[in-house]
Amino acid sequence: MRPVSRLILFRTFAGANLVSMQIIQNYINGKFVPAQSGATLENINPSIGSPLGTLPDSDNADVEAAYQAAKAAFPAWSAISLEERHDILRAISDGIMQNLDKLAEAESMDSGKTLTTSRTIDIPRSALNFKFFATALMHFASESHHTPESISYTLRQPLGVVGCISPWNLPLYLFTWKIAPALAAGNCVVGKPSEVTPLTAYLLGEICQAAGLPAGVLNIVHGLGPKVGEAIVKHPGIKAISFTGSTRAGAEIAHIAGPMFKKTSLELGGKNPNLIFADCDYDKMLDTTVRSSFNNQGQICLCGSRIYVEKRLYSRFKKDFVDRVNQMKVSHPLDPEARLGAVVSKMHFDKVMGCIELARQEGGQILTGGHALSMPSPYDKGWYIAPTIIEGLTEECRTNQEEIFGPVVTIQSFDTDEEALALANCTNYGLSATVWTNNLERANYFSRNLQAGIVWVNTWMLRDLRTPFGGVKHSGVGREGGWEAMRFFTETKNVTFGL
Ligand code: NAD
User: Fold this and answer.
1) Per-residue pLDDT tens for 199-237?
2) CATH class of domain segment(s) 10-268+475-495
3) Is 208 a catalytic residue?
4) How far apart (Å, rounded) are the C-alpha atoms in residues 284 and 412?
């Protein structure tokens, strides 16, 4: 495996000129090509607020080329031996880890997240996604059913060409979380990363080439959601759409894909509750709550943004939480001491600052944060927001109902378990919930009754890739992870033999 060659990245932490311009191209039929129209979009580095390079502004014609390449590659890719498919996916995983430093730097420059986060979370997990599904495909099995008169077996066959569309918050992590099972199940892919963070997906194309992935098996088209993303969803030959992103875009995709009878997996927004009871392991809870509130600048769909604390613990928690958050350093992504970096874009910065202003108007008291931060040059034009804690809001207000997806949390007290449950379930979202208690009965009561696809008890974001992942209510439809993903990317057929 050769290392990624095209990428000439960042010099030093303090270096003024952080990056050479990156001309990102589509990866279609094993080749790097511009959009057929020649149009490009600017790719901005949010930590310095200036261009990092360009990406193709692709359209229907590029999706069609990607689809034709995938269609042509499908018969051979779906027929190769499981061992061969495993070896190629494993080689992609190895290639990602061999390029850890460059990919981590690219991810941080593209998204504003700290280099520590990219190096320890995003990129290792991207490699693990391929490793996990490389082995999964070797063990994927299906059912058989016997009666005295018959024997039936279940065939799970690849769908053909599938579409994978991913967001900007965990760029390579979530892109590979879709692509790896799709390829493992024998499909060919037309993938689209977020236009806000396209760089590591582009580099993945090089890694796939070097790992021996046959041309056309994975095609990556870059560009805008309503343009190239929608072209993927509308394409009649693309059999399924695996989408992660906002509830708004998920609804648009469902609207198009429904009448076409396409399989869809929709992983959407969240407004996750974090329930803290007085009988919890306090230190562990506090450490984890700081992380679950502000990791990746609060831009993780699983972050707990509504924190509910049992009344007798509330004042202690409030003081300690504010103290701990005040100690967190916000800095440019390459600062090894940074706990928070820049938010992903100017547009997102404006949205989050607007949400903080709304919270003020709704009567919220800002306990800490609530403002933008400026950094020394060359980061002075980047988009940084102080981690923000707000109290004094009711559960019905927009701040507690709408997804902010930034470094902003609200805190509120409760008296009883029933009240805590009602508060937790009071939004349209239902992705994840966290419960801090050492009372087993209470933990089980909440696990059963919380309206969420994922419940964490005395932990947060501890992921076993075999477990089902996804949300209820407006947080999505379908599950990813383990066999759920392998099943999504296959068509189920029953075959019955009479005996
Ligand atoms: P987004 O919906 O704006 O975009 C996500 C992706 O969809 C991008 O690639 C975008 O180009 C594309 N897209 C946008 N509109 C489209 C359309 N009409 N048709 C086809 N494709 C379209 O979301 P975002 O701002 O990139 O990401 C943040 C959102 O993602 C938040 O709501 C967050 O909660 C959610 N998210 C959910 C999960 C999860 O697992 N449930 C994980 C991460 C992020």
Assistant:
1) 999 999 999 999 999 999 999 999 999 999 999 999 999
2) alpha beta
3) no
4) 20
